[in-house]
Amino acid sequence: MKNILLILTGGTICTEINQKGRLDVTEKAKTAIIQSFLDSSSPYKNTVRFTPTENLGILSENMSVNGYNIIIDTYKRYIKSQAYDGVIIAHGTDTLAFSTSLFSMLLHNTDIPVLFVSANKRISDESSNAADNFRYAAECIAMGITPGVYAVYKNISDQKVYLHLASRLEQCKNYSEDFYSMGAVDITDIDMQNCKGYFDLVNKGTKSQKAYLNINNVRLSDCVLCITPYVGINYSAIDYSRFSAVLHGTYHSGTVCAEGENSVFLMIDRALSAGADVYFSPSRLCGEIYESLGKVGEYAGLNKDRISFLYGTTIETAYAKLLVAYSCLDDKDKIKEFLSDEINCEKIHL
Asked: Is-above-0.85 flag for pTM?
């Protein structure tokens, strides 16, 4: 019998219609989610046992750094109390990729599988993918999936269930109900007797063998500012003094504005003066780069210990690594080492 911890954070998969006719988190979700598996045709429904937590009541759009600490504390409390063969975390879709990226960092050395599940609609809706997502996650644990952090999600466009590495999952796009990641594997018709090949495919990558942190000692702080560039951005409207690091996204060519009144140099100067380090992602200073990026690179050369370029991961994972690094590591060399190391298969080797 496999013993599975079910952490209910909130989100659509943990909601029902309230008296106002709106979706809201409910304690009834734990019963509905588990019952959906018991009512399924899964050959494993009599071989697993679930231990559900209380519903943490966090709609994913309301997720915060403090919300992450609540999930971490819940995880630690239950893991300490008894042994589990795996963990399923029920989460909303809106910030799913940010949460999977974060926990792929925090649990990079986990010795049991941890799988995130979510839903496009409440589980009581007949068109919801909640039951399928939960069933496949439970079956992955029952079949002995390699320890690691994953996400399981049935895309609505093609009705296929995909297994994602948590560190590579990208945010769902607007007007879509599909999730994507580099290296995702279709497990819709997975061969129950020969499943390891699927898991080997999705697990391509490396995990750090270094002990950068212990989740039992983790306490995250709201110390990283993430900026998305847009035409006409006003950097002077931001208070940088609250943050230890600034993560600045880039346009698809890895570029940022380097001229005029909206120049990124205003942000750099203000951030550095406030004591925050600056990171650009995804961007790199090699090959045929644009003059705009070259100017930023030259400026970075004058402040090489304070300005860095991160490349080869999603923006969600870049944020997660910075959040963990600046919350949990107080040595600048350790931070730099942590950011450059591949912690949990997050590098996308292009």
From this structure: yes
211 in any annotated domain: no
Nearest to 130 by CA among 6, 5, 3, 47: 6
136 lies in the same domain as 192: yes
Total count of domains within the chain: 2
Under a CB-based contact definition with an 8 Å cutoff, are residues 97 and 122 in contact? no
Q: Are residues 238 and 193 in the same domain?
A: no
On whether both 267 and 163 belong to a single domain, the answer is: no
Per-residue pLDDT of the chain (350 residues; tens, 9 = 90+): 999 999 999 888 988 888 898 888 777 888 889 999 999 999 999 999 999 999 999 999 999 999 999 999 999 999 998 899 999 999 999 999 999 999 999 999 999 999 999 999 988 889 999 999 999 999 999 998 889 999 999 999 999 999 999 999 999 999 999 999 998 999 998 765 555 555 566 666 788 888 888 899 999 999 999 999 999 999 999 999 999 999 999 999 999 999 998 999 999 999 999 999 999 999 999 989 999 999 999 988 888 889 999 999 999 999 999 999 999 998 899 999 999 999 999 998 65
What are the contacts of 203-206 at 24+ separation with CB within 8 A?
A: 203/146, 203/148, 203/165, 203/345, 204/345, 205/165, 205/342, 205/344, 205/345, 205/346, 205/347, 206/342, 206/345, 206/347
210 found inside a domain: no
The domain in which residue 246 lies consists of 222-340
Q: Are residues 162 and 34 in the same domain?
A: yes
In this structure, the answer to whether residues 104 and 237 fall within a common structural domain is no
Mark whether 155 and 227 lie in a shared domain: no
Same domain, 149 and 41: yes
